[in-house]
Design the sequence.
């Protein structure tokens, strides 16, 4: 599995994950939306940590800079 995420993309995902988790744990959101936020926060954090987003594959998206073959 090759990396397809840039550092900026990873940082944005981590910030979003922390913000969603914070909203849930401070009871800013409740009910079903809090469950959705926690699931999204976990997915964002996981994809940021492994530097790979499976959703990018079918669309051929790479936010990292690829090295050109010499």
Sequence:
């Amino acid at each position: 599995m090759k990396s397809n995420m840039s550092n900026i993309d990873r940082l944005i995902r981590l910030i979003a994950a922390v913000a969603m988790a914070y909203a849930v744990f401070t009871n800013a959101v409740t009910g079903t939306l809090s469950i959705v936020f926690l699931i999204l926060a976990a997915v964002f954090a996981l994809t940021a940590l492994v530097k790979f987003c499976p959703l990018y594959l079918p669309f051929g998206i790479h936010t990292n800079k690829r090295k050109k073959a010499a």
